[in-house]
Design brief:
Elements (H helix, E strand, L loop, with lengths): L3 H6 L2 H18 L6 H8 L3 H29 L1 H22 L4 H15 L2 H9 L7 H9 L4 H16 L1 H7 L1 H14 L12 H4 L6 H32 L3 H17 L1 H11 L1 H20 L5 H29 L4 H30 L3 H27 L1 H4 L7
Helix pairs in contact: 2-6, 2-7, 2-8, 2-9, 2-11, 4-5, 4-6, 4-7, 4-13, 4-18, 5-6, 5-7, 5-10, 5-11, 7-8, 7-18, 8-15, 8-17, 9-10, 9-14, 13-14, 13-17, 13-18, 13-19, 14-17, 15-16, 15-17, 16-17, 16-19, 18-19
Length: about 400
């Protein structure tokens, strides 16, 4: 999918720096989810409290993405990324040094981790501004593949927590974060194609465009599904199939790996066949997979297969959405990345928290899965309603360079 023309079109060191920053930040962002079973046992949390604990970093990340989106256009993505990384590292070191002893303190840690989740609003503009329209899907797919950091969290955090205690994991995770910060300082550069900073009302003017709201909704389903499941599946596999925290972490890692690794593929496929066609197939696939899961499959391996299918659809959908966004809002990519990323976080918060509430109220996770499957169907219908207008208006302007 990556050809010589792509390698010559942009700035590869910055693309690598954006990927690594995004990757390790996402590892930190969802670190509470893989350790949720162990934390909940020590702090005696209810299913609803567990759901809220793992959902808080997702919601905090949604809010901070808007802040970072604005800072990117004022300070530049490189400087904004430096500030964000220092804040996250300092917060994690404080949590490790002073300890986390209550549910309220886990929520405070979640707020700090939200800054790591906001790396999305920095890494994507950092990479995007170096590449022309015909390579946006591939470039943002590669940078966005940094959500694979959630794999490391799911794979390693439960084992590290079992060996060293979950509070010490907050200190251990700062080691790769510090190394990534060093690489970022050396490799990352701001593109010379940087728009002039605007006043706040001018940034928010994009909200008057109906397409902005459509993109925000579409991403709330694709990314919301991905990060909501990434944050919740360790709890789900442990509760539903009595897996140990470590085994549940391995199952979660397999699902997250599938979803994160195909994000570049989703962007590249969208470059070739168009983002609309890609998203149509992906929403339909995700909806079917979530409905199947809601029935309560008899074995953990069957559930694993269904979740992998859902994560593949959500992961490719993430890449496809951001093949379209820069074509419609290239000059406003910083604020649009923040706004679209925010709603992705809101979708993830909804899924993670609703699964916990569904379990606490009804004793089953089915309602949480079914509601999100319904949102995927609504997104599919919405996409069908706008695709002809998109292709006839701003899509036509990009004819010959990028596909809608």
């Amino acid at each position: 999918m990556v050809n010589k023309g792509f390698l010559q079109a942009g700035h590869l060191p910055t693309l690598i720096a954006a990927f690594l920053y995004f990757d390790l930040s996402f590892m930190a962002w969802v670190i509470l989810g893989p350790m949720a079973v162990q934390i909940a046992a020590d702090l005696q949390l209810s299913p609803g409290a567990k759901g809220l604990m793992v959902a808080t970093p997702v919601l905090a990340g949604a809010g901070f993405r808007v802040v970072n989106g604005l800072l990117v256009d004022h300070l530049g993505p490189r400087r904004t990324g430096l500030i964000s990384q220092v804040v996250v590292i300092a917060g994690l070191l404080a949590a490790w040094w002073f300890g986390v002893h209550s549910f309220a303190e886990t929520l405070l840690v979640g707020l700090v981790l939200g800054v790591a989740g906001a790396s999305f609003a920095v890494a994507l503009p950092l990479a995007s501004r170096w590449y022309p329209p015909e390579h946006q899907g591939t470039a943002l797919g590669i940078a966005g593949a940094g959500n694979s950091g959630t794999v490391f969290a799911a794979l390693l955090a439960p084992s590290l927590a079992a060996s060293f205690g979950w509070n010490n994991v907050f200190g251990l995770v700062t080691i790769p974060l510090l190394l990534t910060l060093l690489v970022y300082v050396i490799l990352a550069k701001d593109s010379p194609d940087r728009p002039t900073p605007k006043r706040l009302p001018e940034y928010l003017a994009v909200l008057r465009a109906g397409d902005a709201w459509w993109f925000m909704f579409f991403y709330s389903v694709t990314f919301g599904g991905f990060v909501g499941l990434a944050s919740s599946l360790t709890i789900y596999f442990s509760d539903q199939y009595a897996l140990s925290p470590v085994a549940a972490g391995y199952f979660t890692a397999a699902c997250v790996f599938a979803g994160s690794m195909v994000r570049p593929l989703g962007g590249a496929v969208a470059d070739r066949i168009g983002g609309v066609r890609s998203l149509t197939a992906m929403y339909a696939t995700a909806a079917v997979a979530l409905v199947v899961v809601s029935f309560g499959l008899p074995t953990s391996w069957m559930a694993l297969g269904a979740f992998i299918l859902a994560m593949l659809a959500f992961g490719m959908g993430n890449g496809a959405v951001f093949q379209l966004v820069p074509q419609r809002f290239r000059r406003e990519i910083g604020v649009m990345t923040g706004l679209v990323g925010m709603t992705g976080g809101v979708g993830g918060f909804w899924l993670a928290s609703s699964l916990g509430l569904s379990k606490q109220i009804s004793g089953s996770y089915a309602a949480g899965f079914l509601v999100f499957a319904a949102l995927a169907v609504v997104a599919l219908l919405g996409l069908s309603s706008v695709k002809h207008r998109w292709r006839a208006t701003w899509g036509a302007a990009a004819a010959g360079a990028a596909r809608i």
